[in-house]
């Protein structure tokens, strides 16, 4: 079988490889604590589940418009208005099966040979994978140059050339857990006014997972950039709905017909009961988010202190999401070696930093979307492993 050459440029998401290896060891009888996948361990709130069940009982099981139920898009519009006081036309909103289709379609629309797309490293690995797949040149900005793993707006602006088609931002960041505040984002947004040929893809999927009472510096705040702004968000993280495959994104009007065609050519539409669940989530109370965030904050403080108490491990305080991204070079191991030893000797599944970018050789990612008991036991096991 002769395959397309472009397949050789595709990367993957290594967290799933870590999960597969850990499950294999578990099947052989080895106890395993899973701190690999970014998946909240909470149940989806009951009112959301009930809404999806009712949709099925009411006969909502057929095809709908490719861009999503109007009622679902309207609920997204209402939520944006409530959170950010920004009016967004539901016709600029697309309902997606998770966040990845937004990444894929945005890069497919703008990336091609001879163009450049700027992205964070470390960063969610699908971005670099899809840039390479499109034939564009991936131009990284390195977060490990900062002790708190935050981006430098001036560094990002310096990377823009006449070939730059798009800038990708992830805030709060996966995998680092770093959070960049509005004063810094303001500097970047002001600088981007001088580069009208650059589209911005702002990944705000962790916008509801921000700690210490800080506010999300959404790119909806910058009216001068709206005609070239794509905002990626969704239900997965905030509402513990990862397996529901529910995301939404806001697009420039110019791109809507092109992305709609890509949807029709790929997945047709998002399943309808999930969309009714999504409406219930956005229009319902935020109490479940606040309850989850209290627990995430406790876990964040626990894992931050615990990691820094391990010999040879240094970790900055995560400001958002539910990840810690420590440097483990002081242990005498690089990130991959540390992860392998943690899995086989300590029974703890975590992800090496190189899964998120070449500059993260000395880092590993811990997901603290797990119980405090599991986090404490994992830290204790690793402490014993390190002697």
Short structural summary:
The protein has 387 residues and is an alpha/beta fold.
Describe the structure.
This protein has 387 residues and is α/β, with parallel strands linked by helices. It has two domains: 5-43 and 287-385, Aspartate Aminotransferase, domain 1, CATH 3.90.1150; 48-283, 3-Layer(aba) Sandwich (Aspartate Aminotransferase, domain 2). Helix content is 39%, strand content 13%. It has twelve helices and twelve strands. The protein has a seven-stranded mixed beta sheet with strand order 2-8-7-6-5-3-4, sandwiched between helices. Strands 9-12-11 form a three-stranded antiparallel beta sheet. The longest helix has 22 residues, at 287-308. The radius of gyration is 21 Å and the shape is globular.
**How far is the N terminus from the C terminus?**
51 Å
Number of domains: 2
Which spans of ≥5 residues are poorly predicted at pLDDT below 50?
A: none
Count of helix runs: 12
Class inferred from helices and paired strands: alpha/beta
CATH homologous group name of the largest domain: Type I PLP-dependent aspartate aminotransferase-like (Major domain)
The proportion of residues in beta strands is 5-15%
CATH names the topology of the largest domain as Aspartate Aminotransferase, domain 2
């Amino acid at each position: 079988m002769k395959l397309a050459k472009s397949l050789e440029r595709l990367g993957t998401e290594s967290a799933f490889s870590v999960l597969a290896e850990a499950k294999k060891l578990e099947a052989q009888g080895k106890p395993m604590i899973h701190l690999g996948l970014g998946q909240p361990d909470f149940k989806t709130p009951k009112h959301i589940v009930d809404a999806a069940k009712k949709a099925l009982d009411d006969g909502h099981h057929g095809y709908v418009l490719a861009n999503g139920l109007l009622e679902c898009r309207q609920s997204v519009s209402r939520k944006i208005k409530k959170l950010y006081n920004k009016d967004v036309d539901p016709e600029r909103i697309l309902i997606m099966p998770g966040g990845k289709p937004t990444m894929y379609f945005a890069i497919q629309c703008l990336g091609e040979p001879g163009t450049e797309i700027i992205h964070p490293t470390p960063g969610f690995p699908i971005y670099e994978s899809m840039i390479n797949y499109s034939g564009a040149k991936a131009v990284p900005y390195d977060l490990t140059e900062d002790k708190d793993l935050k981006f430098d707006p001036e560094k990002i602006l310096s990377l823009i050339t006449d070939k730059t088609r798009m800038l990708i931002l992830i805030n709060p960041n996966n995998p680092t857990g770093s959070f960049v505040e509005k004063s810094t984002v303001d500097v970047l947004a002001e600088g981007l006014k001088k580069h009208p040929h650059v589209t911005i893809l702002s990944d705000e999927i962790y916008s509801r997972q921000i700690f210490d009472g800080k506010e999300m510096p959404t790119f909806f705040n910058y009216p001068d950039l709206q005609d070239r702004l794509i905002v990626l968000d969704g239900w997965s993280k905030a509402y513990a709905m990862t397996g529901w495959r529910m995301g939404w994104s806001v697009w420039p009007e110019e791109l809507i017909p092109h992305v709609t065609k890509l949807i029709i050519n790929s997945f047709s539409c998002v399943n309808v009961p999930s969309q009714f669940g999504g409406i219930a989530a956005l229009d319902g109370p935020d109490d479940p988010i606040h309850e989850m965030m209290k627990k995430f904050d406790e876990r964040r403080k626990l894992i931050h202190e615990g990691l820094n108490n391990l010999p040879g491990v240094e970790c900055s305080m995560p400001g958002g999401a539910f990840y810690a991204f420590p440097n483990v070079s002081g242990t005498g191991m690089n990130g991959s070696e540390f992860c392998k030893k943690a899995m086989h000797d300590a029974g703890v599944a975590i992800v090496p930093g190189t899964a998120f970018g070449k500059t993260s050789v000395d880092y590993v990612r811990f997901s603290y979307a797990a119980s405090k008991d599991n986090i404490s036991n994992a830290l204790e096991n690793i402490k014993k492993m390190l002697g």
